[in-house]
Amino acid sequence: MTRSDVHTHGTCDDSADPTPGELARHAADTIARRSGIDHHDIALVLGSGWGGAADLIGETISEIPAAEVPGFFAPAVAGHVPVMRSIRVHGSDTVALVLGSRTHYYEGKGVRAVAHGMRTAAAAGARTVVLTNGCGGLNPQWSPGQAVLIRDHINLTGASPLEGATFVDLTDLYSQRLRTVAHTIDPTLPEGVYVQFPGPHYETPAEVKMAGILGGDLVGMSTTLEAIAAREAGMEILGISLMTNLAAGISPEPLSHAEVIAAGQEAAPRIARLLADIVQAIATDAE
């Protein structure tokens, strides 16, 4: 890892790069000090289209610019929120750490940077994480704006956040228990397999066809590396995708990031309410 792979804001010893665990603990300590919250129970990563959920989850206790927390960066993608929020979930004592900004693999900052949010959330006390994203869909029966629970994934990045002889079982990576809780809020939510490509270019029609042959239902550029890091850290994971468009070759229309953002904005009020209700149900179920 080079010096550019971490973002310490001058707060770590310049004589050596911190390990991922050290940097995560340093970030968690910074969040605790700045927010006044010693322990967070659940973490949320709000992908494209999901940002509005933070306003509905509960009472905001603290907001911290992401770039002021060691190891984090201002968002590089439109539609992501540049702050971390500590929120007390309505009707419970649960405190959520909401990560409005994620580092994507295609940004070139290294896999450690991609996994840093999960390691920080775990160091802050979170035992549950909800990962959201905006993505393309392979099922022509789904319309843009459809929320889909992730039941499994296929990681086509060729990378892993695990280092050395670290062997982690991914059999039940996306929690059946948490998906059951989500279905109590909306029994009609479909489930699918999420396929992560490296990006940042969109997939070709042939690549989308390949993803379908492999068993994929959704294609995107995030989530899988974070999920693996979260499992390594001992967290229980719920994944939810917003299908913003039909993937290349499924729809005859060319793909456009502006259209992805527009689809997310149109669906935002509905999916924000859905996610807030799911988080509140998870919090209630845990108490």
Automatic annotation (TrEMBL):
Keyword Cytoplasm: no
Subunit details: Homotrimer.
Disordered: annotated segments: 1-21
One Pfam family hit: PNP_UDP_1
Similarity comment: Belongs to the PNP/MTAP phosphorylase family.
Protein's organism: Schaalia radingae
Enzyme Commission number, as recorded: 2.4.2.1
Domain Nucleoside phosphorylase: 42-279
Chain segments annotated as transmembrane: none
Keywords: Glycosyltransferase, Transferase
Enzymatic class: transferase
Protein name: Purine nucleoside phosphorylase
The protein's annotated pathway: Purine metabolism; purine nucleoside salvage
Record's catalysed reaction(s): a purine 2'-deoxy-D-ribonucleoside + phosphate = a purine nucleobase + 2-deoxy-alpha-D-ribose 1-phosphate
Residue stretches of biased makeup (Basic and acidic residues): 1-12
Function: The purine nucleoside phosphorylases catalyze the phosphorolytic breakdown of the N-glycosidic bond in the beta-(deoxy)ribonucleoside molecules, with the formation of the corresponding free purine bases and pentose-1-phosphate. Cleaves guanosine, inosine, 2'-deoxyguanosine and 2'-deoxyinosine.
